[in-house]
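Page 42, continued from yesterday. The earlier attempt failed because a stray header line got pasted into the input along with the sequence. Redoing it now with the clean sequence only.
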Amino acid sequence: MAADAPNTPDLPAVGGDPERMGGGEAEALRGAVLVGVVPGIPTRVVREAGRYAKLLGAPLVVVHVDVTRFVTYEDPDGYVHSAPIDINIAAGENDLAIVKAEAAKILDGHNVAWSVRQLVGDPAMAMKHLAEQVDARLLVVGTRKRGIGESIREFFTGSVAARLAHRQQRPILVIPLGEPVPDDEEIWPA
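This time it went through. Structure tokens are written below.
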């Protein structure tokens, strides 16, 4: 269950089932800036997304995708049915609580209307679907920190940013995290 931040009374509450968005809510979020986050994401990603939302005069939607659940089917009215991959569904709820607290710490007092929304399944596809529902103006994601584990994961699954770039037409802002790879170093070590 997702909810608005305390400083956004003009945005609709996203309570109850986080996968259902009525027409009024979609309209209130029309043209939003979406930022994909995970617990512990560096503040720079959310701060930059907030800055762009403010520049564009758009609401900011902080999106957390629970990858421990998957979409089973979607009703014609947009209601998404999901099921857990793991029986421990509390993990996704705990992550959402962390994301809400981190977003509030970063965004409160910065004069930008924002809300938090939790989706399920594949992060790129979930963000794409929400972007279509609200006709998002911009998608913001961070890169993964450098490391062999992340390099291997991205080799097999692709980065969320790259997958979004190939599966939809909205602009994507990718915020680099960690230290950049030096020009003389291989990005994909052998």
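Notes: The longest strand covers residues 60-66.
Reminder to self: strip header lines before submitting.
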